Amino acid sequence: MRGRKTRIEATERQAVAYTRVSRCEQVENGHSLEAQDRRLRAYAEGTGKALHDVYCDAGISAGSLKRPDLQRLLTAVRDGSISAVLVTKLDRLSRNLGDLLTLVKLFEKHDVTLVSASESIDTSTAAGQMMLQLLGVFAQFERGRASERIKDVLGDRRAQRKSYSRNTPFGYRRDGDRLVENPEQQAALAEARTMHEKGASLRQIAARMTELEVRTNNGGVAWYPRTVQQVLGSLIAQEAAAPACNPI
To answer: For residue 135, what are the contacts with CB-CB under 8 A and spacing of at least 6?
Structure first.
């Protein structure tokens, strides 16, 4: 079933509705397009809004904002012809909180009110604005948590000397998913670190590594200051991730 849209021409800014279902939702959960349409028209009438258009994406998931009628709706928002967007639930617009907040910012920029009938959210009111601000706080919290989880996983893999990216860190070679020390590179790494601690510049260290003819993990013989900086930075990260020894 393809997306459809009912349009009534108007010369002023309009209140519109947006409906969406995926096929499984339409069959299993009663979120049919017709039910959403009826709910939003009744809500608009009850709140004194004149509902002019219904934008509809049928059989399309909310995993992406690239939906035909949603894109047409956003074009109308940018054109300044929309005053309010009504949905039965916020997840009709998007199930992704980041995408939802992107839409909210766009609506705010163009002075468009977002109304969710089921969740009693109306951004034209202080309470509705507060609810969306709370959503933003939770989104920021979740991004921070995701970042922490990634750091914890990478730190654990570094501590266990397991491969944690496609690139093998200098000083090691791969053995399955584990990292095994490369003696020649470890010796060069130790000398580079000693030079760094004694105040040698990155350029001086690079010249010494080139002189020793130690190949990088990309197979190169010539070393550059940026290469030394990356190698030393990786070494510091590995040491930071290593478990501390508790004295007995």
So the answer is: 97, 100, 101, 104
C-beta of residue 98 within 8 angstroms of C-beta of residue 69: no
Q: What is the pLDDT of residues 153-193, one digit of tens each?
A: 445 555 554 444 456 777 777 777 677 788 888 888 888 88
> What count of other Cβ atoms lies within 10 Å of the Cβ of residue 54?
21
Task: Indicate the residue among 122, 139, 174 that finishes a domain.
Answer: 122
What are 61's two structure tokens?
A: 């998931």
CA distance 68 to 3: 7
Cα separation, 240 vs 82, whole angstroms: 53
Question: Whole-prediction pTM value?
Answer: 0.51
Task: Judge whether 177 and 163 are in contact, CB under 8 Å.
Answer: yes
Which tens digit of pLDDT belongs to each residue from 84-108? 999 998 889 888 877 888 898 899 9
Residue 53's H or E segment, with its range, is strand 51-58
Same domain, 23 and 91: yes
Element (H, E) at 181: strand 178-181
**Terminal-to-terminal C-alpha distance of the chain:** 70
Catalytic annotation, residues: 22
Q: Compute the radius of gyration of the chain from its Cα atoms.
A: 29
What residues make up the domain containing 94? 4-122
Q: How is residue 92 annotated by DSSP?
A: G
Q: Which of 40, 33, 35, 38 is nearest to 84 (CA)?
A: 40
3-state secondary structure of 9: coil
Domain with residue 31: its CATH number is: 3.40.50.1390
Q: Is the same domain home to 100 and 197?
A: no
